[in-house]
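Reviewer 2 asked us to include a model.

Predict the structure of this chain.
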Amino acid sequence: MDKNHWLAERFDENRSRLRGVAYRILGSASEAEDAVQEAWLKISRSDTGEVANMGGWLTTIVARVCLDMLRSRASRREMPLAAAADAPSESNSEDDVVLADEIGPALLIVLEMLGPAERVAFVLHDLFSLSFEEIAPIVNRTPAATRQLASRARRRVRGVADAPAADIAQQRELVSAFLAASRDGDFERLVAVLSPDVVLRADDLAVRTAAANRRRGAPTLAPEVRGAALVADAFKGRAHAALRATIDGDAGAVWVVGNQVRTAFLFTVEQGKITGIDLIMDPVHLAALAVKID
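Predicted model (structure tokens):
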């Protein structure tokens, strides 16, 4: 079978799902169709020889096209609710009508409040179950930062972040309390600000650096540590040099050496507790973060 014909068949097999991805991201049936067509132009010129997961690869390309469209829309300062709410026309498939009813205007309005990267991260992870490792290259963030984007979007969708100023204020209060308890070595205060199911994730460089500095008092780190007691124990008596910062719009902390950020602490806060902490030391990943020291 001709390569292009084979690829066209695979694309048609996934077309309904790809339109669903595009519609959820863009909120417009007509724009979703445009995105899928543009994606096909890119796909038809691509080398698929090393593609192991065709469905995931196609979804990634469509998502990138949609992200570019969202950014273009934002740069023109459009408020596309009128366009976004355009339900599939009668000429569209029955699946599109079902999809429009499933999403509903309320969710579309909430999604319009999200930034482009937030919207893509939320839709791909929460609605299509892509992993943060798969989404990260699409939004040009680290998996940890992508997880934060989706978490922030999820809070807004659930209505938890109706007042962003109050939300960030609560985050800062919790991060400040966490850092103070860590410096004081107060295990009970650390546990008090952590969710019982808190997860501490450290990148490879952070794990290796901690292991190399064990004799100097560095904590024992693993790629993932779960539970308030273990996470509190890892931070007890530490964070002396950590500075509070705003990272990608959320409250966080950084360790700075010679005016250069060497470590970023990304906090996920839900329902008044810290539910996740990501330690980032990889220079490439650090460079992708928007950091403002408080």
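Residues 3-26 form the longest helix (24 residues). Residues 79-85, 87-103 have pLDDT under 50 and may be disordered. We have added this to the supplementary material.
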